[in-house]
Amino acid sequence: MKKLLASTVVLATVALAGCATTGANNNAGTAIGTANEIGMNVFKAAIDNQCRSQIQQQPAWRIASVAMTESQKEAVQSKVCGCVSEQAPQQVTLIELGNAAIDANYRGQLVTKVVAKSLQSCYANFTK
């Protein structure tokens, strides 16, 4: 399902970029902006999934989460991973995003890199 969604986003981006270069669409700037927004939303979702996976592997999380209810765990994960997802666009270039849209292996590496850069600072902010 994720591969299908990623493929659809890539095809939509290519199609919209093609319209922009031929002048066939007067709203090309808007279409490209929309395609970029969709791509960034997919990227942020991948960041959120990776963040939740990595946060559960943190020794500090394992200790802290013992005393939490399931709703408290979810609330903390949502806050921390929301922070990581919001920092994601600042951590990558458009070239990296383009490469990630084409290459699944690169996409996984990029997501892991971005989460690693942001997770500790976001986690520290919410555990003070």
What is the strand content?
under 5%
The outline comes out as: elongated
Put simply, the count of helices is: 6
Structural class given helices, strands, pairing?
A: mainly alpha
Number of strands: 0
Spans of 5+ residues with little confidence (pLDDT < 50)? 1-23
Largest sheet: none
What's a quick, concise take on this entry?
The chain is mainly α and 128 residues long. It is 88% helix and 0% strand. Residues 1-23 have low confidence and may be disordered.
Structure description:
With 128 residues, the chain is an all-alpha fold. The chain is 88% helix and 0% strand. Helix 4 packs across helix 6 and helix 5 packs across helix 6. The chain is elongated and about 50 Å long. The N terminus is likely disordered.
What features would you highlight for this structure?
6 helices, 88% helix
Architecture blueprint of SSEs:
Layout (H helix, E strand, L loop, with lengths): L1 H21 L5 H30 L1 H7 L4 H22 L2 H9 L1 H23 L2
Helix pairs in contact: 1-2, 2-4, 2-6, 4-6, 5-6
